[in-house]
């Protein structure tokens, strides 16, 4: 190491000498400078070009400072269009350049690309060369760069959490949490929580110009430390101690602008491309002190007579300009992160195909390094990346740190040895203690001094993460002459304080940082670093872009409103609409109300759109990219033209077809109202999304908002009927103003005002006034303009509330890091002291016999000449591909044998997962050719699913069950009936012990990245779920992906234990460490294009694979301590093939190894004597009833532990019942007029509609999540679709029954309906089945949609039609005969029918009917509404039928439709 440091010092001295020589050139005249440079470069550049450059520099120097800082020289290669091949070759030998003066703010995309391609051709090499030039320029004139030293002293972080069953998210626990939090506001603390220490009195220092690596096992506190240092620690955590930047405390400057935390979670706008994402980030972050640095540089260079190098000058100027839409900095960042190949690809998400997971991780990194921040805290930025890509990125960052004097603290999961060696300093953290902090070269010395030694074939990073673990420590004990005793982490921390690196760190921390030495540009003291005008431009550009990318949604909305307008127009068609009586006026009122409701619900799409955008907004807000109003203003303003267009369409179709007042002025006034209703509705739903922050809660919140406005709007309950204590709600409801304004605009028209009607009391009245009085609407013209002003005011108010919610509210739930560490700390604390130490590295020996309780049949798999094709993608056909099919696997032959662990490896795109899916029978499309045999018999997928297991890369499990319950569910469905209950339970316990899950068996699985198990625990659960099926053959796709070295070792120990039981195990693996790679027995290596280039044993220390490749002429020998897996992939890469002129697939096919494998495959393709083919009497191991019972058992736990679903819908139902009961207090006893009866119908209609819609929208996310698990479990042969669907359908019944029961009791008693048993039971029956069919309707919409977002849009399409034909807006006899058919198939119409007939169909009381004599209620119900008492039996049957129909459709679609494409 000292030699390396010495060579570095010599290089530095040489560099300073060369810089000083260049400084002396400043004394020469300009002509002399360029003459000397021209002479030196004559060998590769012409004198003419040199003179041209000198003249152009001279011209630039004469410009005013403002223009000079914006003008650069762009060097371009001179090309001739008509040159032949010889001329081309000569040009390559002797390049000719032209120099062009350019305004750096107006560089075109082609010019930027050409510059980056030329200057940064090979990212890490050219980046170093360029940064050296840039640093040389800065040092040459003595400009000092700002640097940052981050110190943390005695930092302790505590968290509080529930313990044991109290932490389970059950309905009762959640209700207790809510109750305790309410009491907490009044100072009553009933909650008992355990205090957990995440960071324990840690101190240290992150120095500038040095790369620091943060290492530690899972749940050691890495993420918490990074968040604390970046000033972004969650407010629920308590932190003590001091964190300073250059001596300043976190409260003395703006930490979010000074430093950046790069999260391990990739949160991006899916519709934006990679380039657009980075450009937007760059525009929001600004350029920092770059412009001031450039000005100072230019000033000193001019004084010294120094001319900078053109390329460096252009780059510095182009990256120092503020307000540019697309910066050269973005192109540079794309290149060094290897993202230039996907720069114009959208980021994508689970709904839209975009870039890969590894590329998303790089976008997360690029989003921050594209800005001016030089202090970076980077959390696991290499997840999903192979080691060569990680090395390239870290190498470029190292160059930026060393030459740009940046400060970087980076945590990595499994750094390869070559990546590890790029870091200058190491911080090792474990169990909240810092075990080591200091230079990388001393870390092994420290552990040697403690008595532990890193083995020769062990990566240092892997050793460091394992040596502090109680389970893994013993294997590294160096002094075998002394007895080993476990050294706890706290003791390591104390030993480090006495180690020389620890003493030096303590001395450095004891000397306070001199604040006067801090560069003025190092810290940022203002939250606003970019002008508001530039932020608004960027935000408007982004929102406009997203409007275009989401055009389908707005087109769909427009089509939806066109359909609704046509339906409404044909129901209320003018040929059936008259203006002769008050009854005719009531029909127009119904038409106006229908338009009001449709345009109100039209804004509901803002809820999912806004909630989808919230995670990215919260990230940007916390990084202080922009204030909240800069996000909300463009959001609202850019949707105005769309709203105007939709309003024009609605009014254009409906106004004259329905036959509203014909005056043009009233047409435009009506359109203005429709536009303002849409704006108000959009504001309501945006504010709802902002306050609720999750789809389930927002659906409920939105329903509450609309219900309150709807019921108190004056049309369900007339203004005079609203109780005095609720009348404030009428004036606070935007719909009351909209209703008044619409009615006044129509009924004060001449055609209504010129007709007189006779009232029942003999008096005459103007028809328009009479109609308005009947519905208790004001009849002065001023109420139109009051309505307009109120709607405009509400629109502004709701958008302001949306902005305030974004400013002050945080996302729901806690960061994964905090939850994970709290949970894992609990688990660690609960671990038994009796856990035996075992060597992770015992890959080739039997770590434990793991004798299984149940016997199984060892089976071999052989496959011969397997090919796999898919239809040629349309994009490739557009690019000129002539074939109809794309081949992904090409003549793959091999065999997997019992007791042998086989690795399936290759570069990205080689076809590893594709081959595994084909062999396992998991492909849902494509064309498969070739032979696959199981122990000599042709593979039959139905039987193969029973004896095989498949561990998918994505760990998909039901989130609300525990680890043990997940295993029990799998075991009871997949083990044969011959196995008794006790044997199954013992077997589950045996597998939990084998997979090391017994200490977390009662932990909730949770959602990945949100709650529950850590990634590594989830991986082991995935393996265990397959093992309890007692399979003979197991496929594992990337079992170590996304894990740190120690977690990967635990998983591989599990895999090895499984193999040692005699099973056949095959794993795809990405970039394994030496330990993990050499745990495998055999290797099947593939190259891009799906071809095999090696298949055979690895040998001890990978000797077989090394000898095979080293025997190929031209392949370089493996270096000492090099990872054979990394070396093997490098020497067999496509670049190596081109360089050596060899096809490795052809070489393998001509080798003796291939002949041996063919012979083995042929032998395994014939059944052994005395064996029989696999046979099972039934497709599934359990009967249909058994499957149903198991699914129902799991659904019971899922529903019981889903408070965000059940508690939310119960709370909403309770709120709705109490609200309606209060507003419609004793309304059932008011039976004096037809208006009273319509009010009662309105109350029933409103209650069922809103609770039903809420049930529908809240069930959709639950079903969607469970459906993903269903796809995996069905593919594994656990059960068929029918028992699963019936179990989910049945599970809803008790919850909806309870919901319907307490709703009925509250509403029935408060509204004052007659207390007779028959009427009460009918009310309950109809309410129960109405809630049930709405719930099943929501489930059905998910089953026919790819995801719950599309299901929500699909379901919402029919809400308005349900509204129209419910019998509230227009009675059945008045519906045109061409639409009556829809009335009979509208579920809501049958609900209203049943409620009215059962409560009022037999009443003899008389009521007042407008324009007619008094009638009996039962006669009025029969003649006006068309409701017949003797039809109630049919109504009941139809309501049950709707529930059954939607449930059956859900089951059928779940079975037949598969939206999982593989």
Number of helices: 58
Kindly report the spatial arrangement of strands forming the biggest sheet.
8-9-10-5-11-12
Mean pLDDT: 83
Judging by the overall fold, what is the CATH architecture of the largest domain? 3-Layer(aba) Sandwich
Helix percent reads: 40-55%
Q: Low-confidence spans: pLDDT under 50, at least 5 residues? A: 1-46, 814-852
Q: Which band does the percent of strand residues land in? A: 5-15%
Described by the principal axes of the CA atoms, the overall outline is globular
Number of domains: 4
Alpha-beta classification: alpha/beta
Distance between the termini: 50 Å
Number of strands: 26
Transmembrane segments: 552-573, 585-605, 636-658, 695-717, 783-809, 1207-1228, 1240-1263, 1283-1308, 1320-1339, 1351-1371, 1378-1396, 1431-1454
Keywords: ATP-binding, Membrane, Nucleotide-binding, Repeat, Transmembrane, Transmembrane helix, Transport
Membrane topology: Multi-pass membrane protein
InterPro entries: AAA+_ATPase (IPR003593), ABC2_TM (IPR013525), ABC_trans_N (IPR029481), ABC_transporter-like_ATP-bd (IPR003439), ABCG_dom (IPR043926), ABCG_PDR_2 (IPR034003), P-loop_NTPase (IPR027417), PDR_assoc (IPR013581)
């Amino acid at each position: 190491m000292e030699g390396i440091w010495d060579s570095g010092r010599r290089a530095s001295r040489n560099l300073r000498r060369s810089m000083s020589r260049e400084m002396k050139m400043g004394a020469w005249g300009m002509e002399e400078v360029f003459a000397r440079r021209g002479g030196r470069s004559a060998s590769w550049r012409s004198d003419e070009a040199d003179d041209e450059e000198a003249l152009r520099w001279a011209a630039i120097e004469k410009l005013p400072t403002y223009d000079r800082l914006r003008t650069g020289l762009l060097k371009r290669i001179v090309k001739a269009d008509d040159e032949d091949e010889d001329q081309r070759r000569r040009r390559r030998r002797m390049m000719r350049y032209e120099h062009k003066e350019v305004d750096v703010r107006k560089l075109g995309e082609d010019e930027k690309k050409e510059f980056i391609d030329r200057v940064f051709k090979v990212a890490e090499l050219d980046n170093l060369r360029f940064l050296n030039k840039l640093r040389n320029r800065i040092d040459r004139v003595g400009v000092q760069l700002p640097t940052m030293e981050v110190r943390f002293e005695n930092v302790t972080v505590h968290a509080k959490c529930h313990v044991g069953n109290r932490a389970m998210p059950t309905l009762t626990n959640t209700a207790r949490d809510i109750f305790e939090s309410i009491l907490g506001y009044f100072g009553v603390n009933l909650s008992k929580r355990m205090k957990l220490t995440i960071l324990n009195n840690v101190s240290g220092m992150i120095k500038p110009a040095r790369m620091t690596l943060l290492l530690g096992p899972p749940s050691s506190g890495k993420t918490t430390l990074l968040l604390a240092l970046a000033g972004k620690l969650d407010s629920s955590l308590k932190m003590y101690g001091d964190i300073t930047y250059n001596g300043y405390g976190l409260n003395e400057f703006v930490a979010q602008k000074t430093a950046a935390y790069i999260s391990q979670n990739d949160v991006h706008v899916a519709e934006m491309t990679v380039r657009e994402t980075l450009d937007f980030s760059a525009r929001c972050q600004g350029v920092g002190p770059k412009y001031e640095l450039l000005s100072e540089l230019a000033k000193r260079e001019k004084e010294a007579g120094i001319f900078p190098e053109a390329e460096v000058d252009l780059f510095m100027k182009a990256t120092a300009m503020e307000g540019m839409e697309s910066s050269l900095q973005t192109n540079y960042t794309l290149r060094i992160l290897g993202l230039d190949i996907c720069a114009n690809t959208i980021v994508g998400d689970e709904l839209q195909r975009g870039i890969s997971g590894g590329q998303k991780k790089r976008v997360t990194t690029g989003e921050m390094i594209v800005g001016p921040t030089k202090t970076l805290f980077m959390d696991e930025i290499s997840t999903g990346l192979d080691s060569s890509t990680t090395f390239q990125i870290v190498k470029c960052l190292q160059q930026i740190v060393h030459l740009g004097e940046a400060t970087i603290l980076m945590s990595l999961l499994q750094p390869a040895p070559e990546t590890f060696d790029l870091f200058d300093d190491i911080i090792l953290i474990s169990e909240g203690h810092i075990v080591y902090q200091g230079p990388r070269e001393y870390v092994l010395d420290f552990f040697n001094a403690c008595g532990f030694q890193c083995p020769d074939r062990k990566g240092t990073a892997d050793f460091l993460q394992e040596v502090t673990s109680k389970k893994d420590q013993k294997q590294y004990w160096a002094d075998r002459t002394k007895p080993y005793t476990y050294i706890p982490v706290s003791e390591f921390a104390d030993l480090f304080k006495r180690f020389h690196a620890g003493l030096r760190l303590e001395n450095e921390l004891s000397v306070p940082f001199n604040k006067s030495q801090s560069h003025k540009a190092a810290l940022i003291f203002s939250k606003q670093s970019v002008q508001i005008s530039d932020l608004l431009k960027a935000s408007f550009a982004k929102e406009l872009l997203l409007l275009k990318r989401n055009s389908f949604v707005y087109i769909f909305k427009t089509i939806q409103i066109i359909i609704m307008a046509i339906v409404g127009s044909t129901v209320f068609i003018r040929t059936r609409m008259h203006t002769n009586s008050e009854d005719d006026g009531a029909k127009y009122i119904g038409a106006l109300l229908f338009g009001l409701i449709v345009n109100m619900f039209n804004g509901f799409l803002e809820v999912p759109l806004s909630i989808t955008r919230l995670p990215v907004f919260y990230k940007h807000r916390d990084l202080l990219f922009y204030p909240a109003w800069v996000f909300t203003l463009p959001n609202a303003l850019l949707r105005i033209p769309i709203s105007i267009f939709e309003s024009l369409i609605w009014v254009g179709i409906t106004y004259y077809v329905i036959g509203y007042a014909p005056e043009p002025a009233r047409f435009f006034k009506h359109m203005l109202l429709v536009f303002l209703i849409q704006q108000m509705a959009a504001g309501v739903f945006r504010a709802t999304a902002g306050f609720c922050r999750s789809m389930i809660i927002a659906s409920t919140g939105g329903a509450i908002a609309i219900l309150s406005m709807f019921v108190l709007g004056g049309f369900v309950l007339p203004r005079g009927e609203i109780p005095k204590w609720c009348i404030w709600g009428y004036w606070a409801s935007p719909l009351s103003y909209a209703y008044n304004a619409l009615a006044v605009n129509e009924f004060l028209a001449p055609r209504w005002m010129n007709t007189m009607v006779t009232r029942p009391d003999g008096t005459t009245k103007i028809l328009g006034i009479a109609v308005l009085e009947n519905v208790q609407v004001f009849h002065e013209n001023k109420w139109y303009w009051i309505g307009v002003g109120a709607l405009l005011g509400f629109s502004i108010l709701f958008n302001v509330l949306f902005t305030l919610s974004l400013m002050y509210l945080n996302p729901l739930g806690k960061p994964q890091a905090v939850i994970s560490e709290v949970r894992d700390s609990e688990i660690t604390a609960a671990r038994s002291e009796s856990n035996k130490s075992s060597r992770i590295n015992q890959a080739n020996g039997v770590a434990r016999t793991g004798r299984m309780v149940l016997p199984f049949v060892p089976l071999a798999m052989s496959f011969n000449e397997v090919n796999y094709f898919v239809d040629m993608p349309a994009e490739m056909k557009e690019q000129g591909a002539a074939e109809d099919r794309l081949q992904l696997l090409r003549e793959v032959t091999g065999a997997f044998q019992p007791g042998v662990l086989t690795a399936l490896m290759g570069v990205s795109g080689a076809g590893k997962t594709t081959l595994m899916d084909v062999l396992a029978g998991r492909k849902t499309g494509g064309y498969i050719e070739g032979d696959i045999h199981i122990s000599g018999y042709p593979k039959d997928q139905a039987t193969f699913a029973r004896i095989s297991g498949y561990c998918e890369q994505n760990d998909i499990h039901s989130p609300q069950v525990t680890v043990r319950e997940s295993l029990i569910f799998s075991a009871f469905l997949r083990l044969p009936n011959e196995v008794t209950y006790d044997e199954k339970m013992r077997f589950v316990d045996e597998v939990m012990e084998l997979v090391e899950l017994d200490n977390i068996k009662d932990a909730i699985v949770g959602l990945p990245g949100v709650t529950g198990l850590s990634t590594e625990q989830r991986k082991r659960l995935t393996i265990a779920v397959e093992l309890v099926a007692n399979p003979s053959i197991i496929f594992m796709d990337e079992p170590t992906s996304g894990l740190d070295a120690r977690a990967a070792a635990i998983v591989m120990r599990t895999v090895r234990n499984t193999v040692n039981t005699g099973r056949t195990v095959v794993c795809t693996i990405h970039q394994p460490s030496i330990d993990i790679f050499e745990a495998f027995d055999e290797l099947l290596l593939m190259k891009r294009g799906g071809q095999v280039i090696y298949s055979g044993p690895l040998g001890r220390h990978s000797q077989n694979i090394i000898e095979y490749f080293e025997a190929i002429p031209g392949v370089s020998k493996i270096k000492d301590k090099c990872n054979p897996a990394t070396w093997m992939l490098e020497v067999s890469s496509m670049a190596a093939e081109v360089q050596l002129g060899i096809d490795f697939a052809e070489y393998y096919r001509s080798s003796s190894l291939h002949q041996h494998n063919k012979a083995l495959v042929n032998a395994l393709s014939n059944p052994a004597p005395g064996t029989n083919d696999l046979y099972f009497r039934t497709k599934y191991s359990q009967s249909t009833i058994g499957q149903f019972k198991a699914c129902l058992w799991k659904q019971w736990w899922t529903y019981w532990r889903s408070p965000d679903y059940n508690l939310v819908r119960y709370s909403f139902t309770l709120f709705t019942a109490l609200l309606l009961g209060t507003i419609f207090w004793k309304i059932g006893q008011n039976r004096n007029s037809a208006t009273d009866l319509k009010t009662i119908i309105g109350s029933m209609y409103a209650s069922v509609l809103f609770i039903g819609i809420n049930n529908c929208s809240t069930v959709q996310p639950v079903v969607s999540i469970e459906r993903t698990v269903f796809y995996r479990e069905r593919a594994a042969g656990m059960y068929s679709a029918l028992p699963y669907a019936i179990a989910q359908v049945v599970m809803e019944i008790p919850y909806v029954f309870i919901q319907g029961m307490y709703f009925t009791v509250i509403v029935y008693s408060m509204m004052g309906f007659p207390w007779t048993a028959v009427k009460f039971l009918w009310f309950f029956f109809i309410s129960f089945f109405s809630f049930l069919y709405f719930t099943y309707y929501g489930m059905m919409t998910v089953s026919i949609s790819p995801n719950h977002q599309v299901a929500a849009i699909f379901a919402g399409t029919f809400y308005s039609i349900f509204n129209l034909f419910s019998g509230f807006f227009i009675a059945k006899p008045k519906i045109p005969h061409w639409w009556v058919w829809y009335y009979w198939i509208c579920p809501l119409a049958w609900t209203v029918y049943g409620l009215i007939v059962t409560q009022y169909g037999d009443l003899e009381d008389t009521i007042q009917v407008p324009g007619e004599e008094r009638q009996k209620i039962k006669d009025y119900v029969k003649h006006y509404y068309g409701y017949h008492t003797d039809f109630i039996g049919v109504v009941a049957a139809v309501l049950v039928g709707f529930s059954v129909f939607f449930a059956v459709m859900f089951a059928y679609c779940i079975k037949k439709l598969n939206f999982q494409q593989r």
